[in-house]
Design goal:
It holds the Pfam family GreA_GreB_N. This is Transcription elongation factor GreA. GO terms for molecular function: translation elongation factor activity. The chain folds into seven domains: 76 residues, SH3 type barrels (Roll); 81 residues, Arc Repressor Mutant, subunit A (Orthogonal Bundle); 87 residues, no CATH class; 95 residues, no CATH class; 94 residues, no CATH class; 71 residues, Transcription elongation factor, GreA/GreB, N-terminal domain (Helix Hairpins, Orthogonal Bundle); 69 residues, Chitinase A, domain 3 (Roll). It has 611 residues and is α+β, with helices and mostly antiparallel strands. The strands form four sheets. It has a five-stranded antiparallel sheet with strand order 4-3-2-1-5, with helices on both faces. A five-stranded mixed sheet has the order 13-12-11-15-14. A three-stranded antiparallel sheet has the order 6-8-7. The longest helix has 30 residues. A hairpin with a 6-residue loop joins strand 14 and strand 15. The radius of gyration is 35 Å and the shape is elongated. Helix 9 packs antiparallel against helix 10, helix 11 packs antiparallel against helix 12 and helix 23 crosses helix 25.
Length: 611
Amino acid sequence: MHPDLEKLVEAGRLKPAIAERLDQVAPGKFLLHGAWGAGKVIEWDLPAKKLTIDFEHQRGQQMDLQFAIQKTQPLPEDDFRAKKVESIEHLRELAQNDPVALVVFLLESHDGAMTVDALERELSGTVVEEAAFKKWWDAAKRALRESKRVIVPGRRTEQLTLRDADVSPADALVGDFEEARDLKSMSKALEAIVADLSLFRTESAALQSLIESIDDSAKKATRLQLGQALELLSLRDEVVSGLKSITLNDESVRLANLLLAEETRLGEELGALSTARQRAIYEVFPEAFGDRWVEVMLGIFDDVGTRGVAEIARIIDDRGKTGELVEHLKGALARRSLGPDPLIWVVRERRGTASGVFSPEIGAAILNLLETDHLSDGPRTTTRLQSLLSDDKELLSDIVAEMGVTEARNFARRLLECPVFADLDRKSLMARVIKAKPETGELVSGNQSRREEPLVVSWASLERKQAEMDDLIRNRIPQNTKDIAIARSYGDLRENFEYKSAKDMQKVLMRRKTELQKELDRAQGTDFKNPDCSSVNVGTVVTLKSESGEDAKFTVLGAWDSDPEKHIVSYLSEAGAALLHQKVGDRVEIRDHDTDQMKVWTVESIAPYAS
């Protein structure tokens, strides 16, 4: 007890119980205040009932004695928070040289557990520089996981938990798995075991029962969480193959059997997994599907995302089946069914594995996808493809290099009319095309004037656009605003999927509103009566004959009137632009939609369109 208090007790002027409480706020003692944090009592004036306290961020704070007793808690001198007041330089040195010891010390002072957010509040800006905290914490997490002293959660809002000091690293890893309550956490725990299999060379008994328990979890998850079940079984197999002392029971679920049984559901499920895990699972395809393994892989090629596409291509190439991959991609290009991820892979590998696929048709495929995605109501799926077209400085040059003059002009015209690009981006892309094909330069000035002209549209298509705008303003945008407000009420916006999804949809809706407004401002409705039939114009029906004697008929109508099944084309489309202003007897190249190849036709007749 403080000497001043002992004298007062001995003189009978202070009761022992009160003296003991006062001793907790005596000079040299540490206190914890709810708002000011930890502090050290520097001096007191008992007659005046005043304390002077050095808090972490506020030195020499005067406080009423009674108030201090009521509003603070005693803090042991070996508590982390007390050390921040007394020995901050020592903690900073510890953060630099031994982050594991620092975090363990911090957790010990918080009953063995705290969230990552709470840890950051305790360290950032004081023990660790605020600007350097993220980098420091990334390194500290790796060290903590390697030490096995702390259970490190996947999310910031979950708790870091201190393990018992006498738990072995192997037992700690098994404990992490046993504490996991969902397949994702189980996979992470099993992944950590795979990374440290050497710990189990002499302690494999615990792993044997763990491996056997995976079967039940995988079986239960197959229907609703197939991808995670496959991931878990793949990790299990790595453990088994890495430790000869571990075996699978005859009744255990085999990864190859599950792949075969769930063949129709594999694409999207595998696409959500990490690159390493997809690679491990694809390696099992030959065992699962026998001679059909390449066919099955190509069947999911468009559904597994960028990482999956690259891994499938690598495995097929490594096993000498590149020819089948090339034929698959060529067929998909001809059918216009090649999605963004395979197309990105073809572009990136155009001088390597995909050299046999890359051709001028790639340009048309890219523009088709960008335009289709632009007109859809959902979130964008071609953003990365659009970025690649802009970022790869040689891509457009490579696309038009093998094109003839007419084909290059048609491609350049489509690029100029593509609504996806901003004006500056469009000019930059066209400059690359013109550099590779100077003959396309004449389109630029002509396009600039044409884009300022009204859009010729049918009254019916104009009404549809106006109805879409009205629905956006009256229904979809207000509903999206409500969705954002509801999602925001769920809290923690960093981990709030509903909020992020609603905000993404907001961008889509507002972008669509702007586009519709621009289009409607330029729109000029017409019924296509009395067109000039001396050449192909908007509102005319054109009869064509090919070099082989085949007949075809196209109706050229307004900007929003395309209907390929009825051979109605917009005057702004590739085919419409090629036909426009042609006269009887003129020859014109039009792309065949079935083969995606250019075909030469002769204009046989031009007649007015009858609605």
